[in-house]
Amino acid sequence: MATLTAAPPERSLSKSLKSKIYRWIIVLLPGLLLYFLPLPHLNPGQRHLLAVFVATIIALVAHPVPMGVSTLVGLAVLALTKTLTPNQIFAGYSNATVWLIFTAFLFSRAVVSTRFGMRVAYIFIRRFGHNSLTLGYSIAASDAVLAPFIPSDTARGGGIICPIVLSIARALGSEAGGTRGQLGAFLMLVGFHTTYTASAMFLTGMASNPLIADFARRIGHVDLTWLRWAIGASVPGLLGLLIVPWFIYRLHPPGIRDTEAARVLAGDELEKMGKTSRDERWLMAVLLLVMAGWVTSPWHGMPNGIVAMAGVCTLLVAEVISWDDLLSEGKAWDALIWFGALIGMADALQQAGIIDVLSKGAFHYIQGWSWLVTLIVLVLLYLYIHYSFASMTAHVTALYPAFLGAALTSGVNPLLAALPLAYFSNLNAGITHYGTGSAPVYFGAGYVTQGTWWKVGFLVSLVNLLLWLGVGLLWWKLLGWW
């Protein structure tokens, strides 16, 4: 019988090289066309800035090189072509929002390294996991509690919650094969969909949320503070955490209903962990103080980034995390680099008047519509266009400023324009198995087929639209925001 042989290394290398070349062509071709071809209503300087920005965004999607490399190359091109001044090039890194997200990643490292995140999840499971539905609610609650301090759904959902869900499913005899419908598929779907709901509820719940807040401030002159973001999301978000697990339970009912064994497993794991450690106690105290600082920022006037930095400094001095931990936290430094670069570019686009020109040009067909119809149409487009994106950051950077500008041009209340687009910058992640970092982790566990994943994702998106645009609008009306 013939045997299969691996492809020669040269052939594999050739395929890899061809793929990279194709990716670079996809990135460079639109950028070069924009750079050299005249465009109506844009002068050469505006056109050059737009060309580099568009090429950078496409690079974030096509991924010929890591995200940080793409943004640094973009800054270098802007500097070498003298499109921006040196001060403009590095202006993004002086933004307090950039340092807020940097420090949030360091909180995330502390939550994971002290095992505080796992303890929280197991406590909820032991307390409330009596049946499959309440077990799903325990998973949702665990994610929501961790979301303010772990600004990455990949780290939170994929790194903490998903492994726990996987352990519970296997302990109850639900494997990725023929028994996945017993419990594992339901838990995987609940874990994933509540992860991005939790991300939408907090300014620090997802890496790009502070970027959204910065866009809202610069374009719409709306201050999305940590407290305002959380208050606006509280009612639709909590309803989502209640309704979405039940909705998935009805759509994809698990075969196992009695999950007392999961509570036993959680109790055993907590017993192995022992009493809360000295580092966990320090971490809990600091997190509570930082949360209090964020909530009260409208009164004391201290930026959220400064409050977070003070919390990280406390953790360093108390040796909950070490200086080496800070230096080795690659995700934090990566976020600092690409986040600062994107904020600098976006700020330059706004100052140059490019966002205003593009918004009026791209959305002139909706001018004259009522503000409510305009808002609904824009949110629908913004949500479902995420089928074309594999990154929430790329989606936000490419589309949020233009969609916000279009809403403002159509007469939508600035706060009402900023909030739904901000929340759906997180909620759009649920429609595919590649739309955010945690999606491949949950999907890769093998418990849910792609067809089921997409079907459930679309149906849950309809529920989210009813909650966040329907109930959300009423809630914001009660708050006097419009």
Q: Give the SSE order as H and E letters.
A: HHHHHHHHHHHHHHHHHHHHHHH
Largest sheet: none
Whole-angstrom Rg: 23 Å
Distance between the termini: 74 Å
Counted up, domains total 2
Percent helix: over 70%
Number of discrete helical segments:
23
Low-confidence stretches: none
Estimate the strand proportion. Answer: under 5%
Summing up helix and strand content along with how strands pair, one would put the structural category as mainly alpha
Counting DSSP E segments of at least 2 residues, the number of strands comes to: 0
Shape: globular
- Overall average residue pLDDT: 86
What is the topology?
Elements: H1 9-36, H2 44-62, H3 67-80, H4 86-89, H5 96-113, H6 116-128, H7 132-146, H8 153-171, H9 184-201, H10 209-219, H11 226-251, H12 260-273, H13 278-295, H14 297-300, H15 304-317, H16 323-328, H17 330-351, H18 354-362, H19 371-384, H20 392-409, H21 414-427, H22 438-444, H23 450-478
What characteristics describe this protein?
73% helix; globular; mainly alpha; 482 residues; single chain
